Amino acid sequence: MAMYIRVKRNKTTYFVQCDPTETTLNIKQKLQNLIDQPSNNQRLSLVATNDILDDSKTLAEQKVENDAVVALALRKVSEYSFFLCRSRQL
């Protein structure tokens, strides 16, 4: 059964079509295509309960319903963490 959720970040809202059987990670991967941010830099939380959504659980398991509002937070990548990642590659 198809449904959609509203994903909000700042003043932008993304309408994402999904199924209750999809995991949070699947939703993050859909968002990755829209916002050009890797899924491991995203955090989704259900606005109604303030619960952070678990990547391995389905939307139904976390009681995310049709037309739910989900907040998107992005991890800020600092120059220091970029330097550490870069130095490990060398």
Automatic annotation (TrEMBL):
SMART domains cross-referenced by the UniProt entry: UBQ
Protein name: Uncharacterized protein LOC103720445 isoform X7
Record-annotated Ubiquitin-like domain positions: 1-79
Species of origin: Phoenix dactylifera (Date palm)
Organism domain of life: Eukaryota
